[in-house]
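Render this sequence as a predicted structure.
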Amino acid sequence: MRTRGRRAFGISASRGTGGGGAFGAVVAVIGLGAVGALLAACAGAPASDHGDDGLPPGAPVVAFYGDSYTLGTGASAPEHRWSSIVAADRGWAEFNPSVNGLGFVTNRDPGAGGPVPDLVEAIIAHEPAPDLVFVTMGLNDNFSMPSRGDDIREAIDADLDRLSGALPEARLIVVEPFWYTDARPASVEQIIAWVRAGAERVDADWIPGASDWLEGHPEWMADDGLHPNDEGYAEMARRMDAELRALGL
């Protein structure tokens, strides 16, 4: 893959420790659709979309396009979500407009009460333009499978095309969709394959394995059983740090 982006990004030590968590009984007991509704409805820690206090002028601007797992739902404070840990450790100015329950198609229809505004447009319109864009989407689209499979595949390509085309100087990092239970419906692997294919098509960097980062450690989940707690987010930050180092970031 080509190296996109106009800035060199610094590296510093990660603060994360630990492994990954799961809550496998939920899917079996109440089904993917009901869990999806809960994920969309859960209130998270109050989230700040910027993490640039005290940073020098010209610090790299890094945007995060994601759902509750990137918003930081379940964390005790925004600074404990994985994105903010990674950004703080590297001196990045964080722009994180992520939304609970969001997917490439799930909860995207304003007429059905879906989240507004368009986060892709918000990232494209951000000033200054992002130097690096993380795409961490796909978990919630499992709750729209299989009936909307074709729509999901098309929406993945459409979102990545928009980001790549509108931000040609930004480096794109597409992360394997997160998952939260030891039980994995077949849709998880299908959506991962579609997202990876989309990333390769726009020549983005790809971070594999993220769907397994919370597997086998229920102690890393918040009281709702659906989202990571501070320890879980610290593990996600540790794993992301290792992947970013491998990419030279």
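Summary. The longest strand covers residues 61-66. The chain has a mean pLDDT of 83.
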